[in-house]
Amino acid sequence: MYKEKLRESFKVYDEIVLKCFCGIFIGAIVAICEVVFGKGLEWILNFREHMGCVMLLGLPFAGLAIVFLFDHWGRISRKGMGLVFEVDQGKSDWIPLRMAPFMVVSTWITHFFGGSAGREGVAMQIGATVSHYFGKYFRFKNSGVIFMVAGMAAGFAGLFGTPITAIFFALEVLVAGTLKYRAMSCAIPASFTAAYVSGLFGLHKSTFKIGNVAELNMELSIKLLVLGILFGMVGGLFAYFLKHTKAFVTNKITNPYKRIFMMGIIVAILLFVFGKCRYSGVGENLIVGSFTSEKIYSYDWILKFILTILTLSAGFQGGEVTPLFAIGSSLGVIIAPVFGLNPLFVASLGYCSVFGAATNTFLAPIAIGMEVFGYQYFPFFFVVCAISYIVNQNESIYALQRQVRE
């Protein structure tokens, strides 16, 4: 009896060690892919900024190219993050390896011609695709999903340089309200390895200083409560309108070529008229502007909100997370005077809590706040992110996300 238990224990620990080594391997491979994606996107964004709004002229035609690519060669890859959720739910058992390059190229095209979109979703799809491919060579329980979660963590960490956030996000995003604990032994080394390797090639996390903040007292707690409600509503509404706008546009214009071309024209005109390309790209300009002396307008957040939804609803590719950071931080700067608080402080709260509300996650937004702004602000991030998570009404930018709540 004792020997059998001992053998069983050794078997479990052997599996944990194997997962750790696999995580390191996955992290390194995914990081290289993220460097290619991230550096390519960096060059594209700089080039488009140098060229100005002239690139918007090609946005509708770029949309046609994206649809053509997926229509002829991408096939199931067009599902993107939806396919990742389907694999987790057992609705599919296969993520084609070609999904990664197709998502990378289509996202590059979107940003090259000035679309308003993010990058995180693609980063996680790269990680999920690569890791799921290697997962089929291992036979321990749930290896496919475990490797996929590890790859998602590696993808997030490799691009954003925030390994702790990446771990929590990958563990909790697939099923809201739960964590995939079995994937931790693989996801943790994968995430830290990816962040380290990508850092060697120049992909580092963004950090901002927000200065001193008053002690957490009753007055400040009430203000944080209200801010949590506001940011939670904005994040939840983003997810709600993204889902329903996609459905509305798809039902009204069933032909994907016509849909992306017509919507591309509308988006291009709006991007030019409102801000002359200020709202093109991932929104890094709004994020940096929120934490520096650059001008942030009262309408920045809502225009980024609307134009990102329209870009993604049309069929252009990219993520949502960085635009959510931009929406939250720029909104925070604007409403800070109403509460008599430091604009940088409120911007940091918006940065993480709008992201959390829109993705229907709780731990990841707290972690991103600490990794980007400082661990000493944990109590403030905890309160605001908790409230925003509660009031988002289970809305999520990921349509196939399952929810498990008491």
From TrEMBL:
It is a multi-pass membrane protein. It comes from the Bacteria. InterPro entries: Cl-channel_core, ClC, ClC-type_chloride_channel. The chain crosses the membrane at residues 16-37, 49-70, 145-169, 181-203, 224-242, 257-275, 296-316, 322-341, 348-368, 374-392. One of its GO terms (cellular component) is membrane. One of its GO terms (molecular function) is chloride transmembrane transporter activity. The keyword Transmembrane helix applies. Keywords: Membrane, Transmembrane, Transmembrane helix. The keyword Protease does not apply. It is found in: Membrane. This is Voltage-gated chloride channel protein.
